[in-house]
Design brief:
Length: 436
């Protein structure tokens, strides 16, 4: 990943910030935020749009130390309090040392906790919500430089978790965890489209996390990654079971539907070195080293790319897949990889997952004008089905159209104006979507 914090990870966006600050203590952070200019937290820079932009000071929390251990686990509840600047891979390592595990992971272990939560970033699994759905508390510094803690049950909490950085700088994230568990990953190739559509619910429910990769113009689904709990459970229920049986049931199901075993380790993008991918072939390992698609020690994906994603209500899943397949000839020339995942619903105001959801992800070649042209066609097909765009990726719907997709958006805007009446944390996309 790029070290230059003036640009995002993919290099398609140069930030507008006039300064970058790395506070080391709570007092230093309060002083920065309490100043007169605009401020915005900047995480791992894995957003492809300007949702994290500011004309003022970008605050990085990679050196921030509040005097507490970076990871603290409550031995009774299993809730972990984590420094917000940690990367998910780092958090997974530290939790494993204490016998705990994150319940779900995104494709990348390289992303920061606070940034992933703020944009409703997600992994996959019928029973797995987005990363924000496991959050039970937040500590943040608001516009006056004061620290505030919000926890599940507080009136403002559902509006404060997926908040796009609009309420303040989050310094700690409290999240539910599970006892440490292992995952094994199997990959099959060339699953017929008819089989996927006919058995979609069975396929996505066959393992703890399922991802199907396609370039949409192909005759079959090129790869399906099956991530099964080694204890035999395909959900968050941690009941005992034969891990080998869990592997057989998911893999054999797809083989019976016409897929084939992968010939060896695979990368989601054709032609890329699979050494960057997490371990496959059914070899069990810690959950945080299998649930992502990429290893923490490798550069994820290609870097020179753009990304879009649309989150479709589960009841329209098959219709959405057919609609994108119908655009296959338009999509395929620009596409590096497409991915189909599932996500469980939650109650967070700006989460696009207000019910069980099908996620359609697109990794594009770095041609922004051509991508925007294709996105107009995709959105014309998907938005009428209730699709919502991922906050951190590229889309062409107007701010007004996006705001109207969220029934609690007016409540969120009121919360942002109450906690940040002078717009200190605005900038970039927030200037467009939030009323002045």
């Amino acid at each position: 990943m790029r070290n230059d914090v003036s640009v995002n990870w993919a290099g398609n966006l140069t930030y507008s910030a006039s300064a970058v600050a790395r506070p080391g203590t709570p007092d230093e952070l309060a002083e920065i935020i309490g100043g007169s200019g605009r401020v915005k937290a900047l995480g791992s820079r894995h957003s492809f749009c300007d949702v994290a932009d500011t004309t003022g000071t970008h605050v990085l929390l990679d050196a921030y130390d509040d005097g507490r251990p970076a990871v603290v686990v409550d031995p009774v509840t299993g809730v972990a309090s984590l420094r917000a600047g940690l990367l998910y891979g780092q958090a997974g390592d530290a939790l494993l040392e204490q016998g705990r595990a994150l319940r779900t992971m995104a494709s990348l272990p390289h992303i920061s906790l606070a940034g992933a939560v703020a944009t409703a970033t997600h992994g996959s699994g019928d029973t797995n919500g987005c990363l924000a759905s496991d959050v039970v508390g937040l500590e943040l510094v608001t516009a006056d430089g004061a620290s505030r803690t919000l926890r599940r049950g507080d009136a403002d909490f559902p509006g404060a978790v997926v908040a796009l950085g609009a309420l303040g700088v989050v310094t700690r994230v409290e999240t539910a965890t599970d006892p440490a568990f292992e995952v094994r990953q199997d990959v099959v190739v060339d699953l017929p489209w008819d089989a996927l559509l006919a058995e979609l619910d069975t396929i996505t429910g066959s393992a703890y996390s399922v991802s199907a990769f396609t370039r949409w113009g192909e005759d079959s689904v090129s790869q399906v990654w099956l991530k099964s709990r080694a204890d035999g459970s395909s959900s968050r229920d941690t009941g005992s079971g034969d891990g080998g049986q869990a592997r057989r049931s998911a893999r054999d199901l797809l083989l019976g539907l016409g897929a084939r075993d992968a010939p060896g380790p695979m990368h989601p993008l054709a032609g890329e070195d699979p050494a960057a991918s997490t371990v496959q072939g059914g070899v069990p390992g810690p959950a945080h080293q299998r649930l992502p698609h990429f290893r923490a020690e490798h550069t994820p994906s290609t870097g020179a790319e753009l990304q879009s994603e649309y989150l479709v209500p589960r009841e329209h899943a098959a219709e959405a897949i057919r609609a994108v397949r119908g655009l296959g000839r338009t999509v395929a020339p620009l596409l590096l990889a497409g991915e189909i995942r599932t996500v469980a619903g939650d109650d967070l105001w700006l989460s696009p997952f207000d019910g069980d959801t099908l996620a359609l992800h697109f990794t594009w070649r770095p041609d922004i004008d051509a991508v925007r042209t294709v996105l107009r066609d995709l959105e014309a097909a998907l938005l009428p089905l209730g699709a919502r765009p991922h906050w951190g990726k590229i889309f062409v719907a107007t701010p007004g159209e996006v705001a109207a997709m969220f029934p609690r958006f007016a409540d969120f805007a009121a919360l942002a104006n109450r906690l940040d009446p002078r717009g200190k944390f605005r900038g970039g996309y927030l200037d467009d979507i939030l009323p002045a």
